[in-house]
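pipeline: protein-struct stage 2 | run 1193 | Quercetin 2,3-dioxygenase
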Amino acid sequence: MNPISSPIISSGPLGMPWATMDPFLFCVHHVDGYPHGNGKYGPAKPLSGRNIGQDFANVDGWNMYHGQQVPGFPGHPHRGFETVTIVRRGLIDHADSLGAAARFGAGDVQWLTAGRGIVHSEMFPLLKTDADNPLELFQIWLNLPARSKMVEPHFTMLWSEDVPRQVVTDAGGARTDVLCVAGKLADMTPLAPPPDSWASAEDSDLAIWVITMEPGAEWTLPPTRGAQTRRALYYFDGDGATIGGQAIAARSANDLRTDAPLVIQNGAKPAQFLVLQGRPIGEPVAQAGPFVMNSEQEIRQAHADYQRTGFGGWPWPDMAPVHGDDPTRFARHVGGRVERRES
Protein backbone atom coordinates (compact mmCIF):
# COMPACT_ATOMS: atom_id res chain seq x y z
CA MET A 1 0.00 0.00 0.00
CA ASN A 2 1.25 3.47 -0.81
CA PRO A 3 2.37 4.89 2.57
CA ILE A 4 1.03 8.33 1.60
CA SER A 5 -2.50 6.93 1.34
CA SER A 6 -2.21 4.52 4.27
CA PRO A 7 -4.99 5.06 6.84
CA ILE A 8 -2.49 4.38 9.64
CA ILE A 9 0.25 6.92 10.33
CA SER A 10 1.88 4.75 13.00
CA SER A 11 0.99 1.72 15.10
CA GLY A 12 2.35 -0.04 18.15
CA PRO A 13 1.36 -2.51 20.88
CA LEU A 14 -0.72 -1.41 23.83
CA GLY A 15 1.49 -0.75 26.84
CA MET A 16 0.65 0.02 30.45
CA PRO A 17 -0.50 2.76 30.42
CA TRP A 18 -1.54 3.25 26.78
CA ALA A 19 0.47 5.81 24.83
CA THR A 20 -1.46 9.03 24.16
CA MET A 21 -1.03 12.20 22.13
CA ASP A 22 -1.72 15.87 22.84
CA PRO A 23 -4.24 16.94 24.22
CA PHE A 24 -4.38 13.64 26.16
CA LEU A 25 -1.80 12.76 28.79
CA PHE A 26 -2.59 9.24 29.97
CA CYS A 27 -5.00 6.35 29.37
CA VAL A 28 -5.34 3.15 31.35
CA HIS A 29 -7.76 0.23 31.01
CA HIS A 30 -8.33 -1.48 34.35
CA VAL A 31 -9.85 -4.98 34.17
CA ASP A 32 -10.02 -6.80 37.51
CA GLY A 33 -11.76 -10.08 38.23
CA TYR A 34 -12.42 -9.33 41.89
CA PRO A 35 -13.73 -12.30 43.95
CA HIS A 36 -16.60 -12.36 46.46
CA GLY A 37 -16.53 -9.52 48.96
CA ASN A 38 -15.67 -10.08 52.62
CA GLY A 39 -18.53 -7.99 54.03
CA LYS A 40 -16.16 -5.09 54.61
CA TYR A 41 -15.93 -4.07 50.91
CA GLY A 42 -12.65 -5.89 50.36
CA PRO A 43 -11.87 -9.27 48.75
CA ALA A 44 -12.72 -12.49 50.60
CA LYS A 45 -9.26 -13.76 49.74
CA PRO A 46 -5.98 -13.57 51.67
CA LEU A 47 -3.84 -10.55 50.83
CA SER A 48 -0.59 -12.21 51.88
CA GLY A 49 2.11 -12.05 49.24
CA ARG A 50 0.77 -8.82 47.76
CA ASN A 51 2.66 -5.54 47.96
CA ILE A 52 -0.14 -3.82 49.84
CA GLY A 53 -0.21 -0.10 49.15
CA GLN A 54 1.43 -0.66 45.77
CA ASP A 55 -0.21 -3.78 44.37
CA PHE A 56 -0.19 -3.80 40.56
CA ALA A 57 1.04 -7.38 40.01
CA ASN A 58 -2.36 -8.74 38.90
CA VAL A 59 -2.09 -11.81 41.11
CA ASP A 60 -5.12 -14.05 40.45
CA GLY A 61 -6.37 -11.51 37.89
CA TRP A 62 -6.92 -8.55 40.20
CA ASN A 63 -5.08 -5.77 42.01
CA MET A 64 -5.46 -3.89 45.27
CA TYR A 65 -3.70 -0.86 43.69
CA HIS A 66 -2.99 1.57 46.56
CA GLY A 67 -5.81 0.24 48.76
CA GLN A 68 -5.05 -1.35 52.11
CA GLN A 69 -8.32 -3.26 52.76
CA VAL A 70 -10.52 -2.07 49.87
CA PRO A 71 -9.12 -2.00 46.31
CA GLY A 72 -8.61 1.39 44.75
CA PHE A 73 -6.84 4.70 45.10
CA PRO A 74 -7.13 6.47 48.48
CA GLY A 75 -6.98 10.26 48.65
CA HIS A 76 -4.39 11.82 46.34
CA PRO A 77 -3.97 15.30 44.78
CA HIS A 78 -4.25 16.59 41.20
CA ARG A 79 -3.58 19.96 39.60
CA GLY A 80 -3.60 21.27 36.03
CA PHE A 81 -5.58 18.63 34.08
CA GLU A 82 -8.81 16.58 34.02
CA THR A 83 -9.69 12.95 34.65
CA VAL A 84 -12.40 11.21 32.60
CA THR A 85 -13.40 7.88 34.15
CA ILE A 86 -15.66 5.51 32.20
CA VAL A 87 -16.89 2.58 34.30
CA ARG A 88 -18.10 -0.36 32.24
CA ARG A 89 -18.53 -2.92 35.05
CA GLY A 90 -18.42 -2.62 38.83
CA LEU A 91 -18.65 0.45 41.05
CA ILE A 92 -16.42 3.34 42.07
CA ASP A 93 -16.84 5.33 45.27
CA HIS A 94 -15.62 8.90 44.84
CA ALA A 95 -14.89 11.43 47.60
CA ASP A 96 -13.01 14.72 47.32
CA SER A 97 -11.68 17.75 49.15
CA LEU A 98 -14.61 19.86 47.90
CA GLY A 99 -16.98 17.65 49.89
CA ALA A 100 -18.46 16.01 46.79
CA ALA A 101 -19.15 12.27 46.80
CA ALA A 102 -20.46 9.70 44.34
CA ARG A 103 -21.05 6.01 43.72
CA PHE A 104 -21.10 5.31 40.00
CA GLY A 105 -20.79 2.44 37.52
CA ALA A 106 -22.79 0.57 34.86
CA GLY A 107 -21.57 2.81 32.05
CA ASP A 108 -21.45 6.08 34.00
CA VAL A 109 -18.75 8.65 33.32
CA GLN A 110 -17.16 10.96 35.87
CA TRP A 111 -15.43 14.07 34.49
CA LEU A 112 -13.31 15.87 37.06
CA THR A 113 -11.55 19.16 36.36
CA ALA A 114 -8.70 19.38 38.87
CA GLY A 115 -7.82 22.97 37.93
CA ARG A 116 -5.90 24.75 40.68
CA GLY A 117 -6.03 21.67 42.90
CA ILE A 118 -8.20 18.92 44.31
CA VAL A 119 -7.70 15.81 46.43
CA HIS A 120 -9.90 12.83 45.64
CA SER A 121 -10.20 9.12 46.35
CA GLU A 122 -11.40 6.38 43.99
CA MET A 123 -12.27 3.18 45.82
CA PHE A 124 -13.67 -0.02 44.32
CA PRO A 125 -16.07 -1.48 46.93
CA LEU A 126 -16.84 -5.18 46.57
CA LEU A 127 -20.50 -5.17 47.62
CA LYS A 128 -21.42 -8.72 46.60
CA THR A 129 -20.53 -11.33 49.19
CA ASP A 130 -22.25 -14.20 47.35
CA ALA A 131 -20.82 -13.56 43.86
CA ASP A 132 -17.75 -12.18 42.16
CA ASN A 133 -17.30 -8.42 41.72
CA PRO A 134 -15.72 -7.81 38.29
CA LEU A 135 -14.52 -4.28 37.50
CA GLU A 136 -13.69 -2.69 34.16
CA LEU A 137 -12.97 0.98 33.56
CA PHE A 138 -11.03 3.46 31.50
CA GLN A 139 -9.31 6.42 33.10
CA ILE A 140 -8.21 9.13 30.70
CA TRP A 141 -6.21 12.23 31.60
CA LEU A 142 -6.99 15.27 29.47
CA ASN A 143 -4.69 18.26 29.61
CA LEU A 144 -5.84 21.81 30.35
CA PRO A 145 -4.44 24.80 28.44
CA ALA A 146 -2.40 27.32 30.39
CA ARG A 147 -5.37 29.67 30.66
CA SER A 148 -7.32 26.99 32.56
CA LYS A 149 -4.65 25.39 34.73
CA MET A 150 -5.74 27.34 37.81
CA VAL A 151 -9.52 27.39 37.38
CA GLU A 152 -11.82 26.28 40.18
CA PRO A 153 -12.14 22.48 40.42
CA HIS A 154 -15.33 21.09 38.89
CA PHE A 155 -17.07 17.74 39.48
CA THR A 156 -19.40 16.38 36.74
CA MET A 157 -21.35 13.13 36.47
CA LEU A 158 -22.54 11.86 33.08
CA TRP A 159 -25.01 9.08 33.86
CA SER A 160 -25.09 6.09 31.53
CA GLU A 161 -28.80 6.54 30.80
CA ASP A 162 -28.05 10.01 29.41
CA VAL A 163 -24.84 9.40 27.47
CA PRO A 164 -25.79 9.17 23.77
CA ARG A 165 -25.12 6.07 21.69
CA GLN A 166 -25.07 5.49 17.97
CA VAL A 167 -26.29 2.00 17.10
CA VAL A 168 -25.85 1.07 13.43
CA THR A 169 -26.80 -2.14 11.67
CA ASP A 170 -24.87 -2.66 8.42
CA ALA A 171 -26.09 -4.21 5.18
CA GLY A 172 -25.17 -7.68 6.44
CA GLY A 173 -27.19 -7.28 9.65
CA ALA A 174 -24.19 -6.91 11.98
CA ARG A 175 -24.37 -4.21 14.63
CA THR A 176 -21.94 -1.52 15.80
CA ASP A 177 -22.56 0.38 19.05
CA VAL A 178 -20.71 3.67 19.68
CA LEU A 179 -20.78 5.29 23.12
CA CYS A 180 -20.28 9.05 22.65
CA VAL A 181 -18.70 10.33 25.85
CA ALA A 182 -17.51 13.49 24.05
CA GLY A 183 -17.56 14.75 20.49
CA LYS A 184 -20.44 15.12 18.06
CA LEU A 185 -21.11 12.06 15.91
CA ALA A 186 -23.53 12.26 12.99
CA ASP A 187 -26.68 13.90 14.35
CA MET A 188 -25.92 13.12 18.00
CA THR A 189 -24.79 15.84 20.38
CA PRO A 190 -22.85 14.65 23.46
CA LEU A 191 -23.52 15.78 26.99
CA ALA A 192 -21.81 19.02 27.96
CA PRO A 193 -18.27 18.65 29.34
CA PRO A 194 -17.14 20.81 32.27
CA PRO A 195 -17.09 24.53 31.38
CA ASP A 196 -13.31 25.00 31.54
CA SER A 197 -12.43 21.75 29.78
CA TRP A 198 -10.46 21.75 26.52
CA ALA A 199 -13.44 19.77 25.24
CA SER A 200 -15.58 22.90 25.73
CA ALA A 201 -13.43 24.95 23.35
CA GLU A 202 -15.31 25.39 20.06
CA ASP A 203 -12.33 24.38 17.92
CA SER A 204 -10.93 21.56 20.09
CA ASP A 205 -12.61 18.85 17.91
CA LEU A 206 -12.32 16.58 20.93
CA ALA A 207 -13.96 13.15 20.94
CA ILE A 208 -14.01 10.12 23.24
CA TRP A 209 -15.87 7.17 21.70
CA VAL A 210 -16.09 3.53 22.79
CA ILE A 211 -16.92 1.28 19.83
CA THR A 212 -18.29 -2.27 20.14
CA MET A 213 -18.67 -4.31 16.93
CA GLU A 214 -20.33 -7.64 16.28
CA PRO A 215 -18.48 -10.25 14.19
CA GLY A 216 -18.29 -9.15 10.56
CA ALA A 217 -19.68 -5.68 11.30
CA GLU A 218 -18.71 -2.69 9.16
CA TRP A 219 -18.77 0.92 10.38
CA THR A 220 -17.33 4.14 8.97
CA LEU A 221 -15.21 6.41 11.13
CA PRO A 222 -15.96 9.94 9.92
CA PRO A 223 -13.24 12.53 9.12
CA THR A 224 -12.44 15.12 11.75
CA ARG A 225 -13.50 18.75 11.49
CA GLY A 226 -10.01 20.23 11.63
CA ALA A 227 -6.82 19.53 9.71
CA GLN A 228 -4.76 19.73 12.94
CA THR A 229 -6.85 17.16 14.81
CA ARG A 230 -5.07 13.98 15.90
CA ARG A 231 -6.90 10.68 16.35
CA ALA A 232 -5.82 7.49 18.12
CA LEU A 233 -7.70 4.20 17.71
CA TYR A 234 -7.04 1.65 20.47
CA TYR A 235 -7.95 -1.89 19.41
CA PHE A 236 -8.14 -3.49 22.85
CA ASP A 237 -10.37 -6.51 22.27
CA GLY A 238 -10.82 -8.73 19.21
CA ASP A 239 -8.81 -10.18 16.37
CA GLY A 240 -8.84 -9.74 12.60
CA ALA A 241 -10.09 -6.18 12.02
CA THR A 242 -9.09 -3.87 9.18
CA ILE A 243 -9.34 -0.11 8.82
CA GLY A 244 -9.38 1.51 5.41
CA GLY A 245 -8.58 -1.96 4.03
CA GLN A 246 -5.40 -2.28 6.11
CA ALA A 247 -5.10 -4.95 8.80
CA ILE A 248 -4.55 -3.75 12.34
CA ALA A 249 -2.98 -5.85 15.05
CA ALA A 250 -4.99 -6.94 18.05
CA ARG A 251 -4.16 -4.95 21.21
CA SER A 252 -2.65 -2.07 19.28
CA ALA A 253 -2.61 1.73 19.42
CA ASN A 254 -3.02 3.34 15.99
CA ASP A 255 -2.43 6.97 14.97
CA LEU A 256 -4.91 7.47 12.12
CA ARG A 257 -5.36 9.77 9.18
CA THR A 258 -8.22 12.16 9.88
CA ASP A 259 -8.91 13.81 6.50
CA ALA A 260 -11.21 11.14 5.02
CA PRO A 261 -13.78 8.54 6.13
CA LEU A 262 -12.21 5.23 7.18
CA VAL A 263 -14.16 1.98 7.10
CA ILE A 264 -13.59 -0.35 10.04
CA GLN A 265 -14.30 -3.95 9.01
CA ASN A 266 -14.44 -6.37 11.89
CA GLY A 267 -13.32 -9.99 11.66
CA ALA A 268 -14.93 -13.17 12.95
CA LYS A 269 -14.87 -12.23 16.65
CA PRO A 270 -16.54 -9.41 18.60
CA ALA A 271 -14.29 -6.35 18.77
CA GLN A 272 -13.91 -3.25 20.91
CA PHE A 273 -12.10 0.01 20.27
CA LEU A 274 -11.50 3.30 22.07
CA VAL A 275 -11.11 6.51 20.05
CA LEU A 276 -9.36 9.54 21.53
CA GLN A 277 -9.14 12.58 19.28
CA GLY A 278 -8.59 16.29 19.58
CA ARG A 279 -6.75 19.31 18.31
CA PRO A 280 -3.42 19.53 20.16
CA ILE A 281 -3.12 22.23 22.81
CA GLY A 282 0.44 22.72 21.61
CA GLU A 283 1.90 24.07 24.86
CA PRO A 284 4.87 22.89 26.94
CA VAL A 285 4.03 20.07 29.37
CA ALA A 286 5.78 19.73 32.70
CA GLN A 287 4.56 16.75 34.71
CA ALA A 288 5.48 15.39 38.11
CA GLY A 289 3.14 12.58 39.14
CA PRO A 290 -0.32 14.08 39.78
CA PHE A 291 0.62 17.64 38.75
CA VAL A 292 0.65 18.75 35.11
CA MET A 293 1.70 22.33 34.40
CA ASN A 294 3.63 24.26 31.74
CA SER A 295 6.97 24.72 33.52
CA GLU A 296 9.14 23.18 36.23
CA GLN A 297 8.68 26.33 38.30
CA GLU A 298 4.91 25.79 38.23
CA ILE A 299 5.41 22.17 39.29
CA ARG A 300 7.48 23.31 42.28
CA GLN A 301 4.75 25.80 43.14
CA ALA A 302 2.12 23.03 42.94
CA HIS A 303 4.08 20.93 45.44
CA ALA A 304 4.51 23.91 47.75
CA ASP A 305 0.83 24.85 47.55
CA TYR A 306 -0.26 21.30 48.29
CA GLN A 307 2.07 21.06 51.28
CA ARG A 308 0.78 24.37 52.61
CA THR A 309 -2.96 24.10 51.93
CA GLY A 310 -3.76 20.45 51.21
CA PHE A 311 -5.86 21.85 48.35
CA GLY A 312 -8.65 22.61 50.81
CA GLY A 313 -8.14 19.80 53.30
CA TRP A 314 -9.84 16.43 53.61
CA PRO A 315 -13.38 16.41 55.10
CA TRP A 316 -13.67 12.61 55.37
CA PRO A 317 -12.97 10.34 58.37
CA ASP A 318 -10.27 8.40 56.52
CA MET A 319 -8.38 8.55 53.23
CA ALA A 320 -10.33 5.68 51.63
CA PRO A 321 -14.04 6.32 52.27
CA VAL A 322 -16.64 3.81 51.09
CA HIS A 323 -20.30 4.77 50.82
CA GLY A 324 -22.08 1.86 52.50
CA ASP A 325 -24.01 -1.22 51.36
CA ASP A 326 -26.70 0.39 49.20
CA PRO A 327 -25.77 -0.21 45.53
CA THR A 328 -27.81 2.81 44.35
CA ARG A 329 -25.72 5.10 42.16
CA PHE A 330 -25.65 8.68 43.40
CA ALA A 331 -23.74 11.95 43.33
CA ARG A 332 -23.69 14.58 46.07
CA HIS A 333 -22.40 17.79 44.56
CA VAL A 334 -20.74 20.78 46.16
CA GLY A 335 -23.56 22.79 47.72
CA GLY A 336 -25.57 19.71 48.66
CA ARG A 337 -27.48 18.87 45.46
CA VAL A 338 -28.00 15.08 45.26
CA GLU A 339 -28.69 12.93 42.19
CA ARG A 340 -29.74 9.29 42.47
CA ARG A 341 -29.98 6.57 39.82
CA GLU A 342 -31.15 3.00 40.13
CA SER A 343 -28.46 0.37 40.61
